[in-house]
Amino acid sequence: MGFDEEKGYFKVRDMSQAEFGRKELDIAEVEMPGLMSCRDEFGPSKLFKGVRISGSLHMTIQTAVLIETLEHLGASVRWCSCNIFSTQDHAAAAIVKARTSAVFAWKGESLEEYWWCTNQMLTWEGQPGPHMLVDDGGDATLLIHEGVKAEKQFAIDQSKPNPDSTSNAEMKCVFTIIRDGLAKDPTRWTKMAEACVGVSEETTTGVHRLYQMAKAGELLFPAINVNDSVTKSKFDNIYGCRHSLPDGIMRATDVMIAGKVVIICGFGDVGKGCAAAMKAAGARVLVTEIDPICALQACMDGYQVVRLKEVLPELDIIVTTTGNKDIVMVADMAKLKNNAIVCNIGHFDNEIDMLGVQTYPGIKHSQIKPQVDRWTFPEDGHGVIILAEGRLVNLGCATGHPSFVMSNSFTNQVLAQIELWTKKDSDTYKNEVYVLPKILDEKVAALHLGKLNAKLTKLTKEQAAYIDVPLEGPYKPAHYRY
Amino acid sequence: MGFDEEKGYFKVRDMSQAEFGRKELDIAEVEMPGLMSCRDEFGPSKLFKGVRISGSLHMTIQTAVLIETLEHLGASVRWCSCNIFSTQDHAAAAIVKARTSAVFAWKGESLEEYWWCTNQMLTWEGQPGPHMLVDDGGDATLLIHEGVKAEKQFAIDQSKPNPDSTSNAEMKCVFTIIRDGLAKDPTRWTKMAEACVGVSEETTTGVHRLYQMAKAGELLFPAINVNDSVTKSKFDNIYGCRHSLPDGIMRATDVMIAGKVVIICGFGDVGKGCAAAMKAAGARVLVTEIDPICALQACMDGYQVVRLKEVLPELDIIVTTTGNKDIVMVADMAKLKNNAIVCNIGHFDNEIDMLGVQTYPGIKHSQIKPQVDRWTFPEDGHGVIILAEGRLVNLGCATGHPSFVMSNSFTNQVLAQIELWTKKDSDTYKNEVYVLPKILDEKVAALHLGKLNAKLTKLTKEQAAYIDVPLEGPYKPAHYRY
Amino acid sequence: MGFDEEKGYFKVRDMSQAEFGRKELDIAEVEMPGLMSCRDEFGPSKLFKGVRISGSLHMTIQTAVLIETLEHLGASVRWCSCNIFSTQDHAAAAIVKARTSAVFAWKGESLEEYWWCTNQMLTWEGQPGPHMLVDDGGDATLLIHEGVKAEKQFAIDQSKPNPDSTSNAEMKCVFTIIRDGLAKDPTRWTKMAEACVGVSEETTTGVHRLYQMAKAGELLFPAINVNDSVTKSKFDNIYGCRHSLPDGIMRATDVMIAGKVVIICGFGDVGKGCAAAMKAAGARVLVTEIDPICALQACMDGYQVVRLKEVLPELDIIVTTTGNKDIVMVADMAKLKNNAIVCNIGHFDNEIDMLGVQTYPGIKHSQIKPQVDRWTFPEDGHGVIILAEGRLVNLGCATGHPSFVMSNSFTNQVLAQIELWTKKDSDTYKNEVYVLPKILDEKVAALHLGKLNAKLTKLTKEQAAYIDVPLEGPYKPAHYRY
Amino acid sequence: MGFDEEKGYFKVRDMSQAEFGRKELDIAEVEMPGLMSCRDEFGPSKLFKGVRISGSLHMTIQTAVLIETLEHLGASVRWCSCNIFSTQDHAAAAIVKARTSAVFAWKGESLEEYWWCTNQMLTWEGQPGPHMLVDDGGDATLLIHEGVKAEKQFAIDQSKPNPDSTSNAEMKCVFTIIRDGLAKDPTRWTKMAEACVGVSEETTTGVHRLYQMAKAGELLFPAINVNDSVTKSKFDNIYGCRHSLPDGIMRATDVMIAGKVVIICGFGDVGKGCAAAMKAAGARVLVTEIDPICALQACMDGYQVVRLKEVLPELDIIVTTTGNKDIVMVADMAKLKNNAIVCNIGHFDNEIDMLGVQTYPGIKHSQIKPQVDRWTFPEDGHGVIILAEGRLVNLGCATGHPSFVMSNSFTNQVLAQIELWTKKDSDTYKNEVYVLPKILDEKVAALHLGKLNAKLTKLTKEQAAYIDVPLEGPYKPAHYRY
């Protein structure tokens, strides 16, 4: 397959950034020992020779190292971003320049463009589709499943999905694409789903969708839940956000965090990392929680557990980490201090009531700089500063998680793809959702210790027998919480 | 049942300490809101009226509040400690003085005395035994199971267990008790096991034994694994040890922790709490691990992950937290700095090679004060200071976990006992090991939030639907790691 | 001079504790490298041969190492404690047993006994008094100055100080001793002051008195302000209290600190150490301050700066560190939660309104254990737990600062005594207050680095010239704040 | 005076950035309460009406708020940056657009341009020069003093400074400017110095130069040492760097800091802030020191104190904070890990051996992006990544200290300028170096508490008398270290 923008083989913002991207890629490789070890272990045998992999995952420098790892193992790869703001244009360009993968991604896509890219990423000329999916948030999986659903209906009654039937702006795009494709090929998505060996998914949200589909018996191919590997969930969520939340806030606003009152909405893994970062920076940290266990954990770490609505006038910075919706409403923001900062590092932008803000009567909008907007309330002239338009602040305002964290997550992705591929002809994986075997989780961790000069102690045979674990692991029962 | 020491109804060190114990008990109640809530909720109905409960669990002030809670719910209670050093004599006296429970426990029992106490605690005059067991470490459960095993053998061939057949000092005691009892009643333990509705067990070690017995089909009654409730495992292990490790070291040695090099062997929950405490006190903390995931977590928190044998001469303080054996050997101690401190907060004293120390040729022993011993090596005259004779330093040298932590653990125990009792006639619990339902785990946490003025946020119906959880919980999937 | 209690040569509680004290002393020596280095450097020449040193300083194990250091340098030493509760009886006994010093000190002296001890400590048979004073809080210095004042008045009009003229309980004792002595020797204190080469004083309070006396022209001999050496003020106040505040609270109450709301009154060096310790233990920490600079520092470290009276019902633990009076009044305590803990680590017990508590109408007192008292308010039955009767909680409820910290403070004392003695015949020190030369302060620090394996970097000549400091120090200007 | 670039009235990069700069300026004002309070207090009286102020200080957004404050008080202002990389072009443009001040500054000046800008900033058409200087690093002061020196010599023997007489690239520029000016006006600098009421200087380096000049009797006008106000030195150095060091490293490299080994060279205030930030981010932190007191402080906070040369192969990140030269030499860098990061947050770029790097035989240079350069060693192909070409990493790679910190520093500057101006006709300030009175230092802090909702406690009269301080402050003796 060629890489020719004219022919629609890729679409990125600016190929002149490729050289800069390559330099950063080279540096990132040193920080991603897990992926480099995969290249060493599985590269020589070209395990993925002839395998088509489609990925929908923030098109960043770190993802570029993942893509090049998959390609190094022999795969053909097509890629798009899973967020309209998260593409690093120089990373996309570097990948295209190196002919490693087709890429359809740029920073600041419109929703229409976003779903066009997703569709392109799934389109393999002369093939039904990819052998495997790498997914983040589940949009690629969603498009296929919606396509299949529509094709079934179309086969029955020739009806097509109607974009006007939904108020959800994203689903309008999805329906449009599927509707328009039905004419050309009324079984395109069905064939694609059949050809698909499986998907590995890495977000809480995406995994939740998968479990719901599996429960409903609607999942069309096996799925590996990479999100719940310890080396993904704890590392990406806790350590990744601990790094990238302050990074995002500082790049966006340059605000002094020390001395400020910061509220972290949600004290799950993401919230734990965020709260730790803000406390470490000298802020006074408040926490909101619905779960009494997480709330008590917050207490034990010295955070004050409050209800958002009862502390609004005290707050300097609000961070949502819940994975739920309607956390900060425009009525809440109307009660904040002047120039209070509001941002989201959970998942979707509906944690913050963006629609409410945009339609608040008399509100004035001023873009300070890209991804940093000040909204001025008409009543008293106080403004709130919303980062990344309510989307993920670490991706929108900084560069996402650092390479070392992503190396953990992505090594899980690679091992999951290897699991799916090497066991595709066995009965191991049905159309269900699976977590990676713990021994692979431990392997991911082990591959990252050398870079940090950490030295593992080895169990003696007697000790292994005493605590009743295999000498080489896994060392913990499935329910162990770390 | 009377409470008359002459008649063997209790045995404690000194009843004159009862008043002091009562004062501390009154104060502890305020710090144990979970237990007090259980009294409020289940006390009026006398849920445990007529129920015999036998407990083997460190006889401390906090345990006294547990015992009085069980008694408040209507139970008859007999108690012993599960560790020869862990009894607080004033707590034991206060319980006996109040006639709340029979108690057989004092600080500094010999092994023979320890097992005598355990036997007394299981002995209910005119009854086959307790209805339920509260266990910590599994010694009560062990004694019953060994008894039943011996009685089966005795029924076959009249053979009796032979204390000389084992080099394990504890098993010698166990065999002696069982052997001596066979003459009096050759089916005592069998009847006791049959009468037993179940056991709730709260340690990793005890739970491990239970799972092994269940796996082998040898478990004689249902068991609830209280240890793996989040509000037990995380709170007791992390937050409890974070408090009580420095407490134990400071009371025992008065040593400045800041500036010292401390190694934490094992970075599980206990190790995490210990490492946090030592870092917080200004120490430089090294960590050893066998599990690459835990090792990588240690790295992410800034700890240096090393092998013990490679850093011995640098160390000021060694803390074992592994739950495994043979962690610090006498040959290791021979290479330490003068007056390096060695202590264990894992489980058994075999984490430290106490036998090796005691039998090292030419070594000299000097007791600085109770639970603080200096052993001088003959080669160069350097000494090591071993705390609590290698047993749990927080119990031996301080007063164990603080009341608030134990309130979490013990509220789990009470809810487990209630589960076992109220469902004893249903099929819910077989002779297997169960964890408490998550909704009860969340309840334990919720009962402790008020004391800390923490205010939970309530989900809206829409939000609960959005993330697909019941409005009132449980809020997390079973595999959630907190 | 003999050591015979009958003859009044010493008075301690229990000589049978001497052996235990000696063991602890041997261990403390290893933690006090500064003092041991002084022995190595100045011991062989017996620099203090024939020198009489009187000390008024908490008679603890660490002080015992100081005393033995002074004696090792050749001095004759007499000692008393500077606080009625702070003596460690086994330390006092060990010193007497070894005939290192005469000692007049025991835990729990009455005020009359306290001042009797102070008087004994200053009494050198056949001599006018000590050559030098080691003072802590300034009581020894006060007694001499009051004595001289009274003798002057007596010489004029034969009037004697009248204990009934003051409501201050301590001054009553001082006046009584002086009054009673005038008959025996009407110039005793005058001769003593004349014979005194100088005093080294180590507390903020004592130093403040000295500066006032010097300013008023009333100081009778040179004084070295050891308190303001960096290696005293920062180490003793910050690092010492960071260690010993949680130690005191835990030993006294066993209360869980994590999750609690702790207010630190005062954010000077002591407050900074205390706040850090409480935060590290998982508490939520509030701070009160009068000084805007210190208040802003508290903000920068994430503490909420509040006024005590506005947050009383939220508080679990109150710690006073101000060095001022009337910080927590009984009316404040009447508004606290049940079993809130109140303690002082500042200086005098007047930081807490003990008189107000003791005389509150209808209040009930219950001693939980020594140094832990619960006072129950009649209105609603809530109690507050006051530690160490309002005196220093780290000394009253634990063992004070750890040896390593005291080694810093006491090495300053030794170097100050050496300064005073070796320069007594020069004009260097007049009847003023002096701080130690910075090069000696740096020396104290340097003597403590080896124990911690810290390795200093050496300046090159070019670097020293570039920043314009001597190659061997001092490295900082006088006003440097560290 | 007009603002016409053609006429040389200002020179900035791009006036189109003015609007963006204004928006950031508006936001910064909210974070700079000290400066805004100065406007409220001194603005109405136009205290600086007719006063000419020349400033040489990083031309950032925060400085823009300072400039507008001076102008708000009535002053005419001319400005340049004190570092070739530190100008924020949008800040410069906003100031020019608003006609607040003439500005000569852009990011990435050459040395020749830098000194041209400095000269322009000092040039007041039709006037001998500024009434007062605001200086940072002392370059403006240096130029005037060198000018006067040259004019004196020129008056004697008509000799001119010779740029070829020095190998120092900066002094070449200084000499050239002075030489070229002598023809036009041989007493320009002499008249300027005479007209100058004083300078306020805010860096350690600049202050050091001033003290040297004062000591040598060469200082030509009074100087206020703003650097040693507590609200400057502690806040700017500790809290500022704690914020901006990780900000700079993350923006430049996106590297995961957690798990890495970071060495902080120097543990003064800057080093303390940097070490705290790196530790808080999860790094393992090593420290180097020459001063034993600072080294012992590092130990007490749990840092390992080492010598740089003994740990090179372990290091991931090196940060120099010493204010000295020759800290990291090229021979050291040759021994580092691949992609180790080297940066400086001390003062000059000579902390890192940039010349040695640039001239290392066979070394290869690759610019990753502006201010991020990789230097590859020929022996083994490992590279080091040097940030900001060895200059201040927080200014070169991020945006310097946050507004709130700079508000403290700059409020000191404003109060210093007010001191100089209002007392210019009194004898208060001679040609010496002065620190601000402590009461003003406390005032600066007080002006910043409201923004953080901190509430000061007020002393009662009795309490003030008890500790012998004025009711309204200052509250501490001059030598207090905070």
UniProtKB/TrEMBL annotation, chains A, B, C, D:
<feature type="binding site">
    <location>
        <position position="289"/>
    </location>
    <ligand>
        <name>NAD(+)</name>
    </ligand>
</feature>
<dbReference type="InterPro" id="IPR042172">
    <property type="entry name" value="Adenosylhomocyst_ase-like_sf"/>
</dbReference>
<feature type="binding site">
    <location>
        <position position="401"/>
    </location>
    <ligand>
        <name>NAD(+)</name>
    </ligand>
</feature>
<comment type="similarity">
    <text>Belongs to the adenosylhomocysteinase family.</text>
</comment>
<feature type="binding site">
    <location>
        <position position="394"/>
    </location>
    <ligand>
        <name>NAD(+)</name>
    </ligand>
</feature>
<dbReference type="GO" id="GO:0005829">
    <property type="term" value="C:cytosol"/>
</dbReference>
<dbReference type="Pfam" id="PF05221">
    <property type="entry name" value="AdoHcyase"/>
</dbReference>
<dbReference type="Pfam" id="PF00670">
    <property type="entry name" value="AdoHcyase_NAD"/>
</dbReference>
<dbReference type="InterPro" id="IPR036291">
    <property type="entry name" value="NAD(P)-bd_dom_sf"/>
</dbReference>
<dbReference type="GO" id="GO:0006730">
    <property type="term" value="P:one-carbon metabolic process"/>
</dbReference>
<dbReference type="InterPro" id="IPR020082">
    <property type="entry name" value="S-Ado-L-homoCys_hydrolase_CS"/>
</dbReference>
<feature type="binding site">
    <location>
        <position position="60"/>
    </location>
    <ligand>
        <name>substrate</name>
    </ligand>
</feature>
<feature type="binding site">
    <location>
        <begin position="203"/>
        <end position="205"/>
    </location>
    <ligand>
        <name>NAD(+)</name>
    </ligand>
</feature>
<dbReference type="GO" id="GO:0033353">
    <property type="term" value="P:S-adenosylmethionine cycle"/>
</dbReference>
<feature type="binding site">
    <location>
        <position position="136"/>
    </location>
    <ligand>
        <name>substrate</name>
    </ligand>
</feature>
<keyword id="KW-0378">Hydrolase</keyword>
<feature type="binding site">
    <location>
        <position position="202"/>
    </location>
    <ligand>
        <name>substrate</name>
    </ligand>
</feature>
<feature type="binding site">
    <location>
        <begin position="345"/>
        <end position="347"/>
    </location>
    <ligand>
        <name>NAD(+)</name>
    </ligand>
</feature>
<dbReference type="InterPro" id="IPR000043">
    <property type="entry name" value="Adenosylhomocysteinase-like"/>
</dbReference>
<dbReference type="GO" id="GO:0004013">
    <property type="term" value="F:adenosylhomocysteinase activity"/>
</dbReference>
<comment type="pathway">
    <text>Amino-acid biosynthesis; L-homocysteine biosynthesis; L-homocysteine from S-adenosyl-L-homocysteine: step 1/1.</text>
</comment>
<feature type="binding site">
    <location>
        <position position="236"/>
    </location>
    <ligand>
        <name>substrate</name>
    </ligand>
</feature>
<feature type="binding site">
    <location>
        <position position="232"/>
    </location>
    <ligand>
        <name>substrate</name>
    </ligand>
</feature>
<keyword id="KW-0520">NAD</keyword>
<feature type="domain" description="S-adenosyl-L-homocysteine hydrolase NAD binding">
    <location>
        <begin position="237"/>
        <end position="400"/>
    </location>
</feature>
<dbReference type="InterPro" id="IPR015878">
    <property type="entry name" value="Ado_hCys_hydrolase_NAD-bd"/>
</dbReference>
<feature type="binding site">
    <location>
        <begin position="268"/>
        <end position="273"/>
    </location>
    <ligand>
        <name>NAD(+)</name>
    </ligand>
</feature>
<protein>
    <recommendedName>
        <fullName>Adenosylhomocysteinase</fullName>
        <ecNumber>3.13.2.1</ecNumber>
    </recommendedName>
</protein>
<keyword id="KW-0554">One-carbon metabolism</keyword>
